[in-house]
Amino acid sequence: MFLEEKFGLSGKTAVVTGGGSGIGQQAAIDLAKAGAKVAIFSRSGAEETVKIIQENGGKAISLIADVRDEKAVEEAFEQVVNHFGGVHILFNNAGICQHKSALEADAEEFKAIMDTNLTGVYIAACAAARKMIALGIPGSIINVGSISGKIVNLPQEQTSYNASKAGVIHMTKSMAVEWVKYGIRVNSISPGYIKTPMGDVPKEMEDAWMPMIPMHRWGHTEELTGMIIYLAGPSASLTTGQDFVIDGGYTCL
Ligand code: NDP
Fold this sequence. Notes:
Rossmann fold; 8 helices; seven-stranded parallel beta sheet; 14% strand; Sc_DH/Rdtase_CS; NAD(P)-bd_dom_sf; 7 strands; SDR_fam; alpha/beta; SDR family oxidoreductase; oxidoreductase
């Protein structure tokens, strides 16, 4: 009863972008375990995630929506509202990575990262906020930044990715302040190295990183979802415009 009051998401609907794998998949599964109905947006479908949620007794749907496509995202939110009756939570997670330095990449490659990681996060956040405002829902939006948006994280040279994630963290603060008047909270999480398909880096890179992490290990997707559930739920009612780092101590050094 106490845990349900503080952290329960029964009766809420959560949209998870990029919920077909990695961090988004775990977030979708655990948001459903906390009681939320879940809609997953991705380019290639998230049937496996939906199946896992349904096997656990939860409710979920998968919708094809590319976060770079404003119209497709708006339509997907419309479908979510028609299907589940509202939208209360957005876990704004879809992202891509590029292991190239500023000089190795060109402007088109830079823009490709920005299109998904920054513009895509903007598009989904605004589409969610428009629905929440129209329905009078005091929702919670959780954007996904990265430690790469806070520090320059050698030995990985990836200016475009770093810039996109710094943009997400500051955009989060701006949206949080602009949307207080609607009762919408906006926060971000900044994970460190998490074992996912994106985090599947060459062994040399892994060997270079591990000594730099005080915990000397990869993080696991399950180690992020407690924070996501907290930020989505009633316990975080005073929390907005903040970035939460979950990185095994990496950014302390
Ligand atoms: P994954 O590659 O496992 O998952 C990313 C998901 O995003 C995929 O399921 C993909 O699905 C979806 N996606 C990509 N582009 C789009 C798009 N244009 N529209 C809709 N969906 C899209 O990566 P992670 O789980 O590791 O990463 C998730 C987030 O966490 C990213 O924002 C990443 O930058 C961030 N992050 C990851 C860290 C890590 O160490 N793993 C560390 C810090 C941050 P599909 O291809 O079907 O569209």
